[in-house]
């Protein structure tokens, strides 16, 4: 199993990644693994063992092959660290990880200059090397039981999910310890544990690395056990000794420290987030790719945003850094290469946060600075304008010319855009709308014949669609006002039934209102109609029960309107809006980018004297899915309690106001089968995963089943050749049998039992569990391995259709044939095929008579003939067969068949009388229940019978007894 | 001209070619005046329906051969129309409950009540009761079977029920105990040869024994299949001499192709290919158990001895699951993946051992 690990390193551009290994000092014992060359030859395991006697141990810090920018992340994976008893007190100032603390590390601690711990061994071992043995450790058991040993077994990364990052703030030592403990438990080495419990060494920790997922856990564990045993024995006693020695050790083993620094994460998830300046990453743009070892993608992205960085999806020449994780996508790697972007790994990224000083310290180049200043200026400027306007309005209000004081308005009204440039996003759409309104009168004069620049001018109305809160209504109002129209808005709070729409708008021009009232104005919603009026029908998809016929009437109105009409809706596809499709120009508004909204929100915040950094605003905007109205509402609520907001507060606030969003089954499938949901750094709980199933519990299992084989399972990442194939089949097997389990559960849910309480189990069996085996890259949109819609639905309805047709064939043949449906399909159709189909293929038209004769023999009609052809598979598939029959023959058959008389076995009962209704009573499903029923029913039947037989004797019990005997006899007679 | 299998079907108990003991018993039952409910069971193509028809004829006379088909329409509680086909003569009625799908219980109760409540109108009829033949009784749902129990006793005076099933394993014990069980075993090769020769004589032509043997081997005890194959062969080569290639039915060759796919490569892509083929078979009304059985037998032929038991074990395992579950394809696929995994493991194990 222990093959030499081959690790391909990728050197980072920065050149920091070279590790150095050192044998620490001349020890009485030589460390087995001293290598001076850095990482030249990755060893499977590195151990460091100390002699008990002297601090001059061979500190063999094995250099870890792991490069920071490692291209192959998986290999690098977490190391197992064995700690000596020494608690790690010192926190490395930088975010480097200490991998192992050997005794050496303890020594290192003693040394003042750097607080880093030495790292024992980190190993890039492939999945195969479950355990690394240092030669020292091997020797130890033999030599002296007392030697202290730190055995480090490094395992591949597949570590458990780590504690939350938030914990990271705790003293590091504790975290790592906890972690290591966890790992141990996982491996469940009883030996180890007992050792640890032994009184002498409290702190001793042996880490058995977790078996990489790829390896069968068993094997790995077994090995780990073997190797750890000797190691642990030595440890307990010696720890204390070492401690003493440590203290006396003055020397700092800088090489080991360096190794530790570079060694990578001790335990995923345990990394502390440095307390960097809030704008530490300001002005930088990041791309994340691959899987980071201790953060999930979202966390990492969050982190970047929290410190003011910008996160973009695809690397471009403008990207400042690419944070590389394991298994980065090849296309991104290519882009990185192409643009020569700086890459950093996770640790360096954290480092960046911790050390970069952000804006204040001149770290930022001139350009960015200027840009930012400019932005600030613009914001201040806009805020001033706003202020001025409000002043004016206030005055107006005071004078009584205007009724509303702006300060009493909702923010959404108060800060509604006043000019085109205030509108966030959808600029072109708004311009088009304005242009259309501008041209409307001309269009009307030309009879809506000239399409105009955007092809809009042939429409009398526009239908604006888009998600809520992105300014559809606002834009419509503003455009109308800007073009000199008086907007009349009818929305869901107005009744808009057919009658009201017709009367209100006077569509048919039947009303004499105008004459009688003596005005020439038609009144709608209290606003006089003129030709400078514009009707805005808001929320047209909300025209519901109370607005019967409203859409139709609206449509009629649109067809002859003399004023522009703007309809607004959320869902373009809605069935209800079908009629409007042809008569309106369809304009869809999309969610604006966060960047487009940001400055506006910042302006408002500034004006409201709230201190909210841009990245916080961004967070609010993205988490509300660019719903500007919601952001404003959130802010105005927040303003009541506080004037500042930080990133976390923004997150919680947004979370509280979260809209329940429904994902499409495709999104859910791609999320479930994707590489992140089940990765080691994923933070989703089982409940979260099941929640995905419940978004659409009837479809998700079908989608998973359809697509689960289309991934490149992440669990196979480090396997090659036969082992990979075997493992893959094993995983597929697990997934497929879980899906099969799921179907059994489904049968309990949807079958006669109706055990709906089993749905969570179904969620796990049919969706979560299969995905947990085979998750990985690959299931996505487009491309050869694209996710597809479940075939099952189509195939099932095809089965239904064909089996109905087969029933028809069977019942027609029944007069001649005894077989049931299955027999007809399996034996008769293949037998009939040479008689009623093949001749047509071979002989063509001349065989038609013979075929029809044979069909008549079995009462088969022309439709049944089609069915027979349709039911064929393989060589007799209908397409194949039909291709071989010339169309002349086909039409000859049809003509001839229709032209002659044919025996009919029976008439379809379709149109005869009313069908009988079946009782819907629930069926008792227990045998016992039937027994009870039986008794009761029989009694009642019996009674009924006797009642009907003889009414007058029912009162007399004696007679009834006699009657009972007679009754059957009577029946019998009657029968005869 | 009908196919031979229908043309030369025996019409009376006396003319049946095999299971003479069974025929004799049926005959004496029919004449005894104390005819019980009967459950015929046995593999398809063994002659159950033929025997039922003969028995009915024995009971009621040639009148039972005047069949008429009636289509009844029921409205399910969910307002769906259910078309039920009923084959009947003056003396008996034949229903196939699988037509009714989930509503078989109510449909059967309805029909049986209706039949049981009307008495035999033909005064000249030999028997006072009517016979109800229930085809595919093993596809009756548990509910329907339970509902049948009471009916069978209650209406004993007016009707007898004849159940026809492939296996009794899916019938509940109370039903079985209310019926006289009649096992119609598949004919043995000698009996089949006798029948084939009888057919040949009637056709008429002479059937060379080698050809007969070949057909019998191929048919696996299914006499219907044997006769159909015989006729097909006769069409192919009128003298039935020389090497005969028995044409397999389309679905069978397709199943073989699937099996070959499984054995020749084991990969996710291959599983999906197999899945597509399974879908095609299933949607063309080949029962899933037949698919599984055919494919499994073919796979077993092609793999090493030590794997055979495992493969069959898992086939049986997933067949049960198919019956319990609702989406057959899931279980078929799970079996395929299992077989692939087994096969691959075996393959590599062997590989390694050969190097050792």
UniProtKB/TrEMBL annotation, chain A:
Coiled coil: 365-399
UniProt keywords, alphabetically: ATP-binding, Coiled coil, DNA replication, DNA-binding, Nucleotide-binding, Nucleus, Phosphoprotein
GO molecular function terms attached to this record: ATP binding; ATP hydrolysis activity; DNA binding; DNA clamp loader activity
Signal peptide: none
Subcellular location: Nucleus
Sequence ranges assigned to domain BRCT in this UniProt record: 276-357
Ranges where the record places region Disordered: 1-252, 936-955
UniProt GO BP: DNA repair; DNA strand elongation involved in DNA replication
Transmembrane spans: none
Domain of life: Eukaryota
GO CC terms, sorted: DNA replication factor C complex; nucleus
Compositionally biased spans, kind Basic and acidic residues: 224-246
Descriptive protein name: Replication factor C subunit 1
Principal cellular location given in the protein's record: nucleus
Similarity-based family: Belongs to the activator 1 large subunit family.
Composition-biased stretches (Polar residues): 25-41
Name of the coding gene: rfc1
Bias (Acidic residues) ranges: 186-196
Skewed-composition ranges (Basic residues): 171-180, 212-222
From TrEMBL, chain B:
GO annotation, biological process: DNA repair; DNA strand elongation involved in DNA replication
AAA+ ATPase domain ranges (all copies): 34-187
SUPFAM superfamilies: P-loop containing nucleoside triphosphate hydrolases (SSF52540), post-AAA+ oligomerization domain-like (SSF48019)
GO terms for cellular component: Ctf18 RFC-like complex; DNA replication factor C complex; Elg1 RFC-like complex; Rad17 RFC-like complex
Keywords: DNA replication, Hydrolase, Nucleus
Record-linked Pfam families: DNA_pol3_delta2, RCF1-5-like_lid, RFC_C
GO molecular function, one term: DNA binding
Compartment(s) of residence: Nucleus
Similarity annotation: Belongs to the activator 1 small subunits family.
Protein name: Replication factor C subunit 5
